Amino acid sequence: MENDQAKSLRERLKTLRMQAKSIAVMSGKGGVGKSNFSLNFSLALQKAQKRVLLFDLDIGMGNIDILVGESSRLTIVDFFNKNVSLSDIISTGPNNLDYISGGTGLGTIFRLSEEKFQRFIQELERLFNAYDFVIFDMGAGISKDSLRFILCVDEIIVITTPEPTSMTDAYAAIKHICVNHETMSFSIVVNRAYNRKIGDSTFNRLAQTMKQFLKREATLLGTIPDDSTIMKAVIDQKPFLMYQPNCHASKAIFKIANDFIHRQSSSIDEKDAKPFIAKLKYFFMKGR
């Protein structure tokens, strides 16, 4: 009997591990390099032999396709307004990276008919079985609709810069999430740091503020230096990871991706083992 129970548990864990890990990349304000991080982080994960889907949910300002120099035939808006599947709107970017272009339709997700709602959930669940990581590039700040989505993910990566306004806005966004989620995990990436010392100092100030006022911990995922190569790559509409793989920013992204993969545990987090899709169903129904 005991062996049967152990076998059953192993099978259950195996099934749950098939689901992709959901990650929301967000920032407190715009212009901090969030989408550029999402793109290059996704590519770095893929280069580490991980199956990645980059999902652009930057409401009204989706720019992943611009960063890769391509124009997508279909976007997430077309899924809701036309009879196409989520698989139909997946575009193939640099290094065969799968991504879904954004649009102005995130709020529409929460106002779908019952039929469309069920179709969206079913198709999203199928996608989650096909990848190791699904990276959601969220819009800057937090709206009522995007909050419901963010509360469902497994982990949040917050992008900030050393600028005081960026740190203040990042803290405000984190606080908003903490009020609604008691166990959410936060990883911080400090972008455009002049040097490692400034990057560490920026993280420490943000982490100490979180600990003092929110009673929450944060993890430094990494620091990306202020590298002129990034702007050159953006102008050329190429991911800087592919534009110049050996530049300081690219090396930093590779390290961040490798550290992130190393951190992932094969065990289920006992604090919140509920799968992303199940949580999404709950919050969708709650917001309807």
From TrEMBL:
UniProt record, GO biological process: negative regulation of cell division
Name of the protein described by the UniProt record: Cobyrinic acid a,c-diamide synthase
One GO MF term attached to the UniProt entry: ATP hydrolysis activity
Keywords: ATP-binding, Nucleotide-binding
Record keyword Nucleotidyltransferase present: no
InterPro entries the record matches: FlhG, MinD_FleN, P-loop_NTPase, ParA/MinD_ATPase, YlxH/NBP35
Species, as recorded: Metabacillus litoralis
Pfam families xref list: ParA (PF10609)
Transmembrane feature ranges: none
Domain of life: Bacteria
One GO location term (cellular component): cytoplasmic side of plasma membrane
